[in-house]
Amino acid sequence: MTATTPEPRPLLRERLLDRLDDVGDALHLPVSGRRVPGTVAVAVLAGLASLAASTYFVGNHHLSLAYGDALAHLTVARQLFDAPAGFSVPPLPTVLLAPFVVSVWLWSSGWGAALLGACCLAATAAAVYRIGARWGLHGLGRLTGVAAVVANPTMLYLHSTALSRPVLIAGMAGCLAGLAHWAATDRPLRPRELALYAGVPGAVAALSGYEGWALVGVGAVYVAIISWYSAREWSTVWREVAGFVAVPALALAAWSGASLLATGSPLAYMVELSSTSPGGPPGIGLGSMGQVALSLTTLNIAVVNTVGFGLVGLAAAGLCILLPWNRVPRLPGFLAVALSTYAYLAVTLITGSVVVLNDANSIEVWNNRHGMPMILAGALFAACGVDLAARTLSSRNPRFVNVAQVLVAVVTAGALVAQTLWLAPAPDHRSLVLSEAVTQLSESFGPRRAAAWLGEHYDGGRIIIDESLARNTVLPLVGLPLREYYLSSNPSSFAAALADPAGHVRWVWASEDPDDRVGRAIAADPGFHSTYRVAYSENGLRLYQRR
To answer: Is the model's pTM score more than 0.85?
Structure first.
């Protein structure tokens, strides 16, 4: 007998090339059941892109930690397991952040938030890709939607921070993907399937921002309309709508009930999500409250700046293409659901429940990140328009199918690249979100430098600080576990330490702010300075060390 030699294993390079070919083929494969070929590859690439961008934003002077809201969310997330302050109900984005900040280094460096952001961007990109596939878009259309989401510099920056936008956008994208699965599938989904695919991410969105509430509400109307025209039975309508809204409604009821027990306010956790209270930054009026035209102008500037003028142009072109040539039933209504976020944001600006400041109404920049969720509608309109344009050109000139595809791809890529190249020379001035980040970074330079000094010189003995003040939300920058502090969020222990600092703490963080309870207690204690000395001082902020 002659021995057979084993076949050589393919080289790693060949295996990678084969895998890339499989991914390329998946972009054009039709959807079969629950599976959408290419989803995993898109999610992985989007996550890697987010992490690559975070290496710049996290490492560049802690730019990812520039927002005071981001520092506050990091502190609350860490506090859930490190020196918890009794029963509390934080927002869902903060709860999801907690596992990523178990390590003090991940917490203080900002990388914990960046890891969560990478997961959110991966989920958002995968959802946008799946939406395109569900509606029958070919590879170019699907990739347009994904590229619009992943290649946006402002989007990448927000996903390096601990702000609530990444979780909100991921939840909204997942909810829209579930609705697309329900509306575009040949096999009608059962109500429990609709609850799983659309209701669960809808609950994530609803617990991450009021934009999620609006999306679930408009989505329920869409489900009701489609169900009625499909079955003409009210019982079917109620079953489908109940299947969609059940999970978000139960989640909101549970969270609000727990918040009512903990704080006396059912929506206290929503207040913690962002600085959206009327008035904006100190000394600023109510923005565009009560002025419809000014509110819409302000919103349009925020949307165009965050989403990008290139994508807005592609989305507008997509709308113009879809209006006369769309032949896909239910798609216009679905795109209207995605666009409902704009209507909600317009109402909130007009009523003053959200304040956004930019060139339209102020010399200040404030809260323009509220325009970022509109990237989903922009990406979907652009993707559908690009796909339809490529198909229309190809059908009219069958001999030039490849030429038509290349032409549409070049125009699309040019629009997305142009907005990035415009932003690149001065992102901190041309991006309103980054401009506000740099402004907050410079305005809080004193407390940030004090935090760095304390982290380097702390020698034990615990610290008392009133972290409820905006200028004192720098605890992650100190880099110490929260159990080393007496914090105002734990009233009983804080009051005890405030009444007898020498018997509790070696370090005291106090400012001249009249709302700083530590500063007021020091001013009222004539014997304090005989026990403590000033170890660090800067611009009305002092760190005291026990003698």
So the answer is: yes
